[in-house]
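Supplementary Methods S3. Input chains for the assembly prediction are listed below.
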Amino acid sequence: AQSVTQPDIHITVSEGASLELRCNYSYGATPYLFWYVQSPGQGLQLLLKYFSGDTLVQGIKGFEAEFKRSQSSFNLRKPSVHWSDAAEYFCAVGGIGNEKLTFGTGTRLTIIP
Amino acid sequence: DSGVTQTPKHLITATGQRVTLRCSPRSGDLSVYWYQQSLDQGLQFLIQYYNGEERAKGNILERFSAQQFPDLHSELNLSSLELGDSALYFCASSLGPSGGRETQYFGPGTRLLVL
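Predicted structure tokens for the full assembly:
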């Protein structure tokens, strides 16, 4: 069975500070990993995805994520957050021939001035 | 704007009733996915259709059914509604099966409240 754990329910950071959101996955084969962002009242928007190759992937809005197979992790990072980054962030796992995404419970990000 | 449209945006109904949620995928997308987002269950995959055929099934209750029509829009039917069915229902679409690599584009969701 596949699963995703996002251990931080809520994170608060100051505007301009760096950010790291944690994601751990469980998947029986080679995972495909995704980060989505959900702004209030909106649907989910894909930030970035990892299938294979370079373990550091770049996404939209200045986000990046690093795949670490040994730690079963796919943490999301941003060097300097902006007030507009306040949202809920979801990590998801799929796999080869598997379009069913399994999502984590999400991390709500609050930005303080 | 993802290009995926969902109607209605909000729906309030009573227990025991039946509702239909509608989704129009992005132009050119052949796959449609339905997800349920609730406070206690999180975001869960329900079902996927590809070009009119059911392709994958997740945690979808027997009271729920879906279909994809020849024009590729999809409908999710929820019947014998219970209080616990109150949730945000998302539709997503993608070009089609790409071995799991396809990007799913999400609609804004339909918020269902069962009273």
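The CA atoms of residues 38 and 87 of chain B lie 5 Å apart. Chain B touches chain A at residues 2, 4, 31, 33, 42-45, 48, 55-56, 58, 90, 92, 94, 97, 99-109 (CB under 8 Å).
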